[in-house]
């Protein structure tokens, strides 16, 4: 897979993460589910080609929504990096702090398989 293809996938991931969050805030479950499904498909595609680790590039994004999704999917790939990213989100006390805390709790309790 070419670098341009990976760049496009990461752009699509960022877009889907933000659209999912926007739909959730607007109580539009149909649209939120559509973008959640898109995020899952992107994750599965990256996993299939052995490139899931490229999501680490998104951990420096300004959007906490994008960082949260990327960190969640990276838990199984690079647990330490993902945990640090989620802990940072929690410490920021922003709009994704609670979600990041729940993801970490579920992961640590063995109830999450991203």
TrEMBL record:
Record-given protein name: DUF2019 domain-containing protein
Natural source organism: Elusimicrobium minutum (strain Pei191)
């Amino acid at each position: 897979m070419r670098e341009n293809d990976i760049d496009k996938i990461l752009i699509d991931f960022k877009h889907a993460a933000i659209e999912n969050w926007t739909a959730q805030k607007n109580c539009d479950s149909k649209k939120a589910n559509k973008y959640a499904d898109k995020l899952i498909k992107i994750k599965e595609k990256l996993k299939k080609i052995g490139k899931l680790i490229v999501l680490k590039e998104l951990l420096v994004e300004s959007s906490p929504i994008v960082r949260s999704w990327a960190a969640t999917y990276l838990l199984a790939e690079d647990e330490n990096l993902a945990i640090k990213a989620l802990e940072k989100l929690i410490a920021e006390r922003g709009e994704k702090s609670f979600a990041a805390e729940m993801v970490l709790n579920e992961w640590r309790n063995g109830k999450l398989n991203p």
